[in-house]
Amino acid sequence: MDHNRARPGLSRRRLLKGAALAAVPYALLPGAHAGAQAAVDYPSGEWQPASSSNFTASSRPSAYTIDRVIIHVTQETYSNTLAIFQNPQKKVSAHYVVRSADGHVAQCVREADVAWHAGNWGYNTRSVGIEHEGWVDQPGYFTNALYEQSAKLTAAVCAKYGIPKDREHIIGHYQVPGTDHTDPGPNWDWVRYIRLVNFA
Hints:
alpha/beta, six-stranded mixed sheet, two-stranded antiparallel sheet, 6 helices, 8 strands, disordered N terminus
């Protein structure tokens, strides 16, 4: 049973909501694990698979055309977001998560599969979802490293699937029809981001 389809009112915000992260020196944040497995579709990333209960196995782009990248903000820490995606009871996932401190990328769902990130089945089937560690009202999380590494990831996805590198095809979660989300929020610098994607 496809829980994302059957429960369209499921709120991702409720699942990812968390208290504000206390200031932690970047030196104390976890790095990539020694010997970590490279991401399946993005070799610069690390493979951190979501529970198979939190996405729909598929064979995109043959099953569904991929023509969008959807930008999210986690409203959670990087490590807690990975834990949520790995919890089979949460019924939520994204293809990628980008860490604030250093732009480290984790891949959680294969691009061929349908991640449950948009709150809209049609948009889930046609998009790659990228989560960014942080909170919409705390712009300090949107570091240079986060923007730069995310832009490289988005550029690679766009190149692979022939997606135009523009705001019609690289959208915020708030632009998904029927969503009640505001991410990535007013502090996300879209002009800078699209420019970085185009020069990556």
